[in-house]
Amino acid sequence: TFHLVSNPDLVLAVSMTKTRNEVCGYPVIVQKYKPYSNGAANQKWHYMKNIKALGAFHSTDLDKEITSANYAGICTSSVIKEENIDQPGYYYLSPDGKRKTMLCLACGQSMRTEKGLKKLLPGVTFLCVSGSKTQKPSLRGPFKVINVAE
User: Fold this and answer.
1) Angstrom distance (rounded) from CA 79 to CA 85
2) Which of 43, 72, 87, 91 is most buried as measured by Cβ atoms within 10 A of its Cβ?
3) Among the listed residues 117, 116, 108, the one whose alpha carbon sits nearest the alpha carbon of residue 139
């Protein structure tokens, strides 16, 4: 990851919101650093010293899949099944304040105003509750018709 010297919170990244340009590929931008193990593959680079070039998306397959799911608005549990991973997301507390329910970016963004969601801090590993077979949340994830666990 290449951080800006003048502001280390900003990094070099591949734009995931612009469409591909046939001549140049995807635009390279500066964006806020995402300190997650998964979901920030567009900020990871490989410097190829022999040809003096940078290769984008130098990361694990899981990181690339989570990054793609986040930008496509797809629940990450459809990618990781039943594994807890470090990824960006949101949480809300149960009415009694004793249980924390965690959601991936897509599911959290689809219901952000409903439950007063808060952003999860980096380093918290979780499986989105929308895809959980054991917990049955009162939400349907980012989809209007199907439940992610189904």
Assistant:
1) 11
2) 87
3) 108
Average pLDDT over residues 128-150: 61
- Beta strand 28-32 with 53-56 is unpaired
DSSP 64: H
101 bridge partner residues = 92
Of 136, 138, 88, 79, nearest to 109 (Cα)? 88
Q: Can you list the positions of beta strands (E) in 1-132?
A: 10-14, 28-32, 45-48, 53-56, 85-86, 89-93, 100-104, 118-119, 125-126
Query: Is the pLDDT score of 136 beyond 70?
Result: no
Give CA–CA dist 75/80, Å, rounded. Answer: 10
All residues at 6 or more sequence positions from 48 whose CB lies less than 8 Å from its CB, including other chains: 54, 55
Q: Do residues 148 and 141 make contact, with C-beta atoms less than 8 angstroms apart? A: yes
pTM, full prediction:
0.82
147 C-beta neighbours (distance < 10 Å), count: 14
- Rounded alpha-carbon distances, angstroms, from residue 41 to 61, 71, 80: 9, 11, 16
The burial of 9, by beta-carbon neighbours within 10 Å (0-12 exposed, 13-18 middle, 19 or more buried), is given as exposed
Phi, psi dihedral angles at 60 (to 5 degrees): -75, 160
